[in-house]
Write a structure and sequence with these properties.
Layout: E1 5-14, H1 21-27, E2 30-39, E3 45-53, E4 58-65, E5 71-79, H2 86-89, E6 94-106, E7 109-122, E8 135-145, E9 150-158, E10 163-171, E11 174-183, H3 187-193, E12 197-210, E13 215-227, E14 230-231, E15 235-241, E16 249-258, E17 261-271, E18 277-286, E19 289-297, E20 303-311, H4 318-321
Antiparallel strand pairs: 1-2, 2-3, 3-4, 4-5, 5-6, 6-7, 7-8, 8-9, 9-10, 10-11, 11-12, 12-13, 13-14, 13-15, 15-16, 16-17, 17-18, 18-19, 19-20
Amino acid sequence: WDRPQPLAGSGTLEGLTLGDPALDELLAPAVDWTLAASVMSDRGLSIDRLTVASAALQAEAEGSVEPDGAVSAAGRLLAPSLAALESLVGLPLSGAADLGWRLEPAENGLALSIDGTISEPGLGIDAVDPLFGAEADLVAEMRVGLDGSFAIDRLTLSAEGAEIDGSMTLAEGRLGSAWTLAVPDLQPVGAALGVTLDGGAVAQATLAGPLESLALDGGVDLTGLSLDGAALPDARLTATLDDLAAGLAGRATLRTSLADRPASLAADFSLAEDGGVRIERIDGDVAGVRLAGGLTVRPDGLLAGAVTGRAEALAALAPLAGFD
């Protein structure tokens, strides 16, 4: 034919399943759809409007499908209540999302960009939710490869009291990701905990390796801290977990200052079979006092083990004891 042929329809799909109970909840109890499109003379498809709606999600799109299968589309996604995603992400989410999106052909796949807002966001964590404020802005650039690879080139979530920025790649059974959380003012966290807390924090983490044995490296920098009016020294806490599949075990290091002298403390940690925590290979230098040994924190909170301290010069301990 030499002119576009109209294609239109609407309907309801009940009992639709994607093979995952958490995803299936988003499609229940039914999905309504409408389509207004045209089939072009070259067998391409021009989509004037496509809508898909369930109780949890509403989406609309327009775009085209070229004769070679290339897809270009843009639209809007609404989630009136993020609580519907609780089963999918494992957190009691709250808020509503209004997101614009664009899908375009890319080398070896598709490129997806997202830009929008989340109103009244919450994770159900009392010490974290105050950081989000009334609204958070979300920007993301992603790629989906025909070979099954997936990448988040950039994802930024900017809220009133915090910003999350990161990237991720997943290909051939290997994951690589790097994320940063910046909290310039910890006062809302302190208020949620019932204390006066000032200062800022920046946390960084990488998660990488084969999916069956991921390794985690993380660190937190705390600056300008004060707790209930008492000044605290700046500090950096780092932790490495070499194989998350084998359990929560790794090594942590704390670097700060006491009495105007550098202080550091490092130790291996792991979960004991009874639910306690083993702390081993302690290596510390706290204002001139060398610490070594190991402890076990039992499930009832009691401690077992031994830690030894050695001071080369007792004069180094005077400032800690309040003596000049």
